[in-house]
Design brief:
The chain is mainly α. Helix content is about 90%, strand content about 0%.
Amino acid sequence: MKKADYEKSIIRLAEIVEALESGSLSLEESMKLFEEGTKLTAACYDVLKKAEQKITELSEIEKEEE
């Protein structure tokens, strides 16, 4: 997932939360949005985990160079 995709996913997640919190959706619509939100959350989590791993690796390299 690219940075732009990540940012779009976060925006879409905010939209989904707002729609679900409104209480105006049918059960079927709510379930569809919930499923979409779950997939987006998992994808964003993966991006953040990879970024965390990269930061850890870079920090270890920096410590070794000192």
